[in-house]
Write a structure and sequence with these properties.
By secondary structure, the chain is mainly alpha-helical. Helices cover 53% and strands 6% of the residues. The protein has one domain (49-211).
């Protein structure tokens, strides 16, 4: 039979409390159920990580796309009003620059501007650490693949004889819009139905999207 616990010695030194504010240095949380790996100080992901909802991910993708579109429109309209027709190069250049910027931000911080606003982040599927530029590039390639597919299909159909083009209406250029939209919807369906909400882009980058 044990006796009562001895009262705490007031003169005994206590371990220092963790200073407030260190949480801002934490890396994104890891995936629930995954095996933790050894990380550097302040990089150990917390255990209460939650996977981001597909609707939130879709809305973040939509916001990033709208922001890019608005920038293109502003530059092109400005070029028309000022007589600078060369600014039409913004149509391909701005989306490419935006994709590159999003790739770098995702590699380093796990976010795009819209993801940062909505509080979600791309992390390694096993450790919760940033995924790096190589894997972020693979994710971006999967996401932009529907755009390349739409352009390729439109270019091939444009080579058909004019008689055939007139017979079907000749509206092949609409495929540049419709094919990417259909491809992105397919990517959303895949990630919404797979375990842990991992889409094709996440499988390519060995990543997962979590709420911060």
């Amino acid at each position: 039979m044990t006796g009562p616990a001895a009262p705490e010695d007031p003169d005994r030194p206590r371990p220092p409390e963790e200073p407030a504010g260190l949480e801002v240095f934490d890396t994104p949380p890891a995936v629930p159920g995954s095996e933790p790996t050894e990380l550097a100080y302040a990089e150990q992901p917390p255990a209460d990580a939650r996977i981001a909802h597909p609707a939130v991910r879709a809305f973040a993708f939509f916001l990033d796309g709208v922001a890019t579109f608005v920038i293109v429109v502003v530059i092109v309209v400005g070029g028309l009003s000022g007589g600078g027709m060369e600014l039409f190069w913004a149509i391909p250049i701005v989306p490419i620059a935006a994709a590159l910027l999003d790739t770098v931000l995702t590699a380093r911080f796990g976010v795009t501007p819209a993801k940062a606003i909505l509080g979600i982040r791309v992390v390694d599927a096993g450790s919760g650490a940033p995924i790096g530029f190589g894997r972020s590039s693979l994710r971006s390639l999967v996401i932009v693949a529907p755009i390349a597919l739409g352009v390729a299909i439109t270019a091939l159909l444009a080579q058909l004889p004019y008689e055939i083009q007139d017979a079907v209406g000749g509206n092949f250029f609409l495929l540049v819009v419709f094919v990417p939209i259909a491809g992105w919807i397919a990517l959303l369906v895949v990630l919404a139905t797979r375990p842990r909400r991992r889409g094709l882009q996440d499988l390519a980058g060995r990543s997962i999207v979590v709420r911060r």
